[in-house]
Amino acid sequence: MNSSDSPSPQRRFNTRLGLFLFLIYLVLYTGFVLINAFAADQMETIILAGLNLAIVYGFGLIVFALVLALIYGMLCRTEPIEDATTGEAATAQGDSK
Amino acid sequence: MIYDPAPLAIFIFLGFVFGTVGLSFYLGRKAKSSEGYFAAHGQIPWAVNGVAFAGDYLSAASFLGICGMIAAYGYDGFLYSIGFLAGWIVALFVIAEPMKRLGKFTFADALDAKFNSRGIKGAAGISTLVVSVFYLIPQMVGAGSLIQPLLGLPHWVGVVMVGVVVIMIVVTAGMVSTTWVQFLKGSLLVIFSTVLVVMLLQKGLTTDTSSFETIGPLSEEDLKQNTILGREVIPATGGWLGTDGKNQEFIRLAPEGKDVRAGYDIYHIDDIPGSDQKLLRQAQAVTGSGASRLIDGAPNGRGPRERELQPIGHLSKLPGGRTSTGPLGPISFFTTIGDSEVILWGSTTITNSKGPKTTVYYQKPTPGKRVLRPGEHPKFAGIRGESFGDRLNFLSLMLALFCGTASLPHILIRYYTVKDGSAARKSTIVGIAAIGFFYVLTLYLGLGAMTSGALDLTDTNMSAPLLANSIRPWLFAVISAIAFTTVLGTVSGLILASSGAVAHDLLIGVMGMKLSGEAQVKVAKLAAVVVGGIAIVLGVLFKELNVGYLVGWAFSVAASANLPALVMLLFWKKTTKEGIIASVLVGMISSLGWILLSADTYKSVYGLNPENAIAPFSQPGIITIPLAFITLIVVSLYYGNRPDETANEVSA
């Protein structure tokens, strides 16, 4: 798989974007898990529209996952050569350079 | 509880199942080559693949297990929903596109893309098999429990039915028909769960104070008399006296006419806060198990001198002393429950020197706000306790859920059914939308079931279908049929992943068999039949196990064995084939070993005292996932000193 050894700039951008968004979500998820594990009582605090932190944060994590996914889908750059044609695509890419 | 199979229900059910299976046969009739069998020629449209992701992923554990857990204990089950969905973030941002780029048919293909090593194919093939088989058992068990109430057939019939239908789906057209089954099931599940939640909110909440009797308040003296309110007290003996012969928890009253063969009415003795008076709340007792079990001391049935378990799950108080709320909104549903009082059920086991044990289920009036916060379920109660080990156990579970999704072989192979990386990305986004929406619904379904007055005390897995039954009987048939197709969709994916691991990874990759495309498909089909047969046998053997329990195992093993190797292969250039093999094997063996030695397994599988368990807590992920990472790094660095060999491998 030569193509993965010399990724196109578009692919490199997509990979970085993915990792960046992943880190944002990781921080939020870790926050949720840690509050549950070490300060479970905080989860009862009413914070929004009569709902407690457990429900707001929990629903928030689900909705936010979709929001990040959509952002990723919109910002990702199209890679120049489609991967499905594998072998030939990799060679074609090599030739064009 | 005794279920009455209704002809309409059976009709709707069979219609759904035959419709789904028939349609997928029709759509998948053309797949003959190995590309077609394993990967549907890479021609599934991304939107269809996205919904099929939902169909593949939302297993019996998600639908039946999570709803049942929420119905029994409140918010805790929702923690699984959150973890299961968060795992998709790993899949989308880290795994999806490289997976599509590197592999062809199986998970092992992707791991092995740079190395062409038999060892990697072998290790990854075995871990695929292990994870898939663990995942299969609870699906089969779930199918059996669904068939019982709906069609009135024994458990094993359900297991065999699923097994046979799924083997047919997989053998006829492999990935193509599997994809369509999953697509249909994913759509149906999301649509009808939404319908159910809308109807639930329309109906609103009501109180129920008449299903179970409350006697009192009574003084301590009243309780020592031979009769209470003119009814004869059955003297407590043996285990009924409570621990040390003190702390008696229950009082049994003889039925009208003092006919001892008609069983008894049983009551839990409750303290009234701020007074020394007592209250008697009706309980339910099950003695023994199987067909000969006694309910409140009488044979299970509806005839004279027979009794049956009463459905449970109700509110005892609504805010402002109302008895009914009318239609509620998606937010006021929660705030209303938060201000109500819910009846949860606890259980105590009474052991007598002779005769079988009796399990007594008793009412526990609980403030509504307690079921809207984590920590009520025995498995999660540790986060409110003192023990650090319990907290680690919780962290470990949430880590395994987070890392597990993106390492499940039957999910990963779906990436080979679309045409390129961009389609893989788009289909994951559709999958996240469908799955996330469904998981939001689980909290409504679970809490709705908790207050529906329709639950079966002894089988929480039936909560979602029984909630549907309490709203409309036809909806029960529809939801059960969907739950059944849910099992079909997931099991097809699992059997396909296993058959790929056997045929493509182990026989061709490791044993070096030379097979043409068509012969490869034949071998894979044979493997599908064998794995399906094994799944049927295990499903019958493990019928007592909780559906959610083994799914947790599968996630831990998948996260420990597969994820570290996959991530490091993508992001660390010095990764070697030895590192990958060692990481997969160490991750798999350590997590499996840990699970087999944990307190949960001691209790539920071996029937041993959980306190003797060797593993310090039950969930292995927090130890075994880092262990697999470290193994990979150490082994890779050790073998990485020989660059020539690796360079040759890459160009080969």
What does this structure look like?
The complex is a heterodimer of chains A (97) and B (652). In chain A, β1 (46-48) and β2 form a beta hairpin. Helices cover 66% and strands 5% of the residues of chain A. Chain A starts with 8 loop residues before the first helix and ends with a helix. Chain A has one domain. Chain A is mainly alpha-helical and 97 residues long. In chain A, strands 1-2 form a two-stranded antiparallel ribbon. Chain B is of the alpha+beta class and 652 residues long. Chain B has 2 domains: 34-204 and 385-651, Sodium/glucose cotransporter (Up-down Bundle), CATH 1.20.1730; 214-384, no CATH class. Chain B has 22 helices and 11 strands. Chain B has helices at residues 7-27, 34-39, 46-57, 60-73, 76-102, 107-112, 118-151, 155-203, 220-224, 332-338, 388-404, 409-412, 421-450, 463-471, 473-510, 517-541, 547-561, 563-571, 577-596, 599-606, 621-639, 643-651; strands spanning 214-218, 227-228, 231-234, 250-253, 265-271, 278-287, 294-295, 298-299, 314-317, 341-350, 358-367. In chain B, strands 1, 2, 3, 4, 5, 6, 7, 8, 9, 10 and 11 form an 11-stranded antiparallel β-sheet that branches. The longest helix of chain B is centred in the N-terminal third of the chain and has 49 residues, at 155-203. Chain B is globular, with a radius of gyration of 27 Å. The N and C termini of chain B lie far apart (64 Å). Residues 644-652 of chain B have low confidence and may be disordered.
